Amino acid sequence: MVKFLQSQGLKVVYRLNGNSALLERLVAENIPVLVEQWLEKRENNELVGHYRVVRGYDQEAKLFTTNDSFNGPNFVIPYSQFDTWWRPFNRAYLVVYQPAQESLVEQILQTDWDPKLNWEDTLKVAQAEVESIGDAYSYFNQGSAYVRLKDYSQAVSAYDQALKLPLPPNFLWYEFGPLEAYYRIGDYENVFLLTDKLLSQAGEVEEARYYRGLSYTAQGKLVEEKLRKRKC
Questions:
Q1: Which domains are seen in the chain, by residue range?
Q2: Which of 4, 61, 104, 179 sits in a 20 to 30 Å window from 227, CA-based?
Q3: How is residue 17 annotated by DSSP?
Q4: Which burial class, exposed, middle or buried, applies to 32 when counting CB atoms under 10 A from its CB (0-12, 13-18, 19+)?
Q5: Is the dihedral of CA 34, 86, 107, 117 positive or negative?
Q6: Which residue from 161, 175, 152 is spatially nearest to 129, judged by alpha carbons?
Q7: What's the whole-model pTM score?
Q8: Is 145 exposed, middle or buried (0-12, 13-18, 19+ CB in 10 A)?
């Protein structure tokens, strides 16, 4: 999505740990923001990964106005419901703007303009929510922040906790941080266990095949190294 928007001559910033105040400041400057959230289907309450464009807000009534490809234009969401759908995806957002607006966007984002500072703040919020909420999403967000910071051992510890707790059955269709973390620490068995389950549920998922390929390759290299040492 970022590459496509850039191909259209636009600038894009992808960050985590968004909040309503930040969205208000961006939208007030006519800067659209795409947010990653759950879509809750009306007919069966099924949760599906989804992007919405935030383009308006009512601060007094605590309502966001979004463009939604499923629910249509002018889909209004109360702030509380908005965060309920947003938090599972680490409150991820994309700021889309014209090149001439870059200094304005940097000013609005403040420390979040720096990716590493954004990830560090994301980790702090996730850790606080582990303490205050302690659900699967809070541990999952903690793990994903650790992945961004390349602390894969800590990420695995957080993901292990998250995966012991209830998650929507299709959540791992959209979030691949555990595969990255397990692969990075050499826990290929867990990569295969997770991707077996994912492929059986969702059918073909490119990311599942990708991490399986990486893991098979890494295991092959380990075998080659063991054989080489035996010959020596």
A1: 2-110 (3.90.70.10), 117-231 (1.25.40.10)
A2: 179
A3: -
A4: middle
A5: negative
A6: 161
A7: 0.90
A8: buried
